[in-house]
Design a protein that fits this description.
Blueprint: E1 4-8, H1 18-26, E2 31-34, H2 42-55, E3 60-64, H3 65-72, E4 79-83, H4 89-96, H5 103-112, H6 124-128, E5 130-135, H7 144-151, E6 155-158, H8 166-189
Helix pairs in contact: 1-8
Length: about 190
């Protein structure tokens, strides 16, 4: 059975994103699912995401930037590969979008952050289910310090800007697939 992967695009993108097309063409042996998300509408995005996860039987999520913020909030123990995740949209979005209400984003950030009152939500299983990809020359933001604090050393740094392209994108996502294959192998041994 082929792995079913949901791709969540970043802000200003849609289901026809270049990143999605590159991933779909680069990993033909996987079944790729995507949709267009209104990432500034938290409730609608979360609802659409939950519907897709349930109806499509997704086992892996690959997500970029603001889309990765939503992937990090998925509580299911799915493999998650997040590319240049925007972990602090209440800070980053006002730099990119005029008239955005950051109140709900701040609440969702607190939920995702692993702060003391939500520490139990980010358990070891969720940490092991998350792999990060960070560009060395990201022109928008870098949440690597936050990611390392919450998820440890489950990440790779690659040369490139915020939107990874071509071989840099494919090889870094492949490193995420490799991480999960190795993790599954170790779990089967126990």
């Amino acid at each position: 059975m082929s792995k079913k992967i949901l791709y969540i695009h970043g802000l200003g993108s849609d289901a026809n994103s270049t990143t999605f097309q590159t991933l779909k063409q680069g990993f033909l042996h996987y079944e790729w699912i995507t949709d267009t998300f209104d990432l500034l509408d938290i409730a609608a995005t979360k609802d659409k995401l939950q519907t897709l996860l349930f109806t499509e039987n997704i086992d892996t999520i690959v997500a970029s930037s603001l889309g990765a913020f939503y992937a990090l909030g998925v509580e299911n123990s799915l493999a998650k590969i997040v590319i240049n995740p925007c972990m602090n949209p209440s800070v980053e979005l006002p730099k990119l979008v005029e008239e955005v209400d950051t109140t709900l984003f701040r609440a969702f950030e607190l939920y995702n952050s692993g702060l003391p009152f939500t520490e139990l939500l980010l358990d070891n299983e969720m940490r092991f289910c998350t792999y990060g990809i960070f560009s060395t020359d990201d022109e928008l933001f870098s949440c690597l310090p936050d990611f390392k604090r919450l998820y440890g050393n489950r990440y790779i740094e690659v040369k490139g800007g915020h939107r990874l392209k071509g071989q840099a994108l494919l090889s870094s996502v492949q490193s995420g697939f490799n991480y999960f294959e190795e993790l599954n192998r170790k779990l089967r041994m126990h």
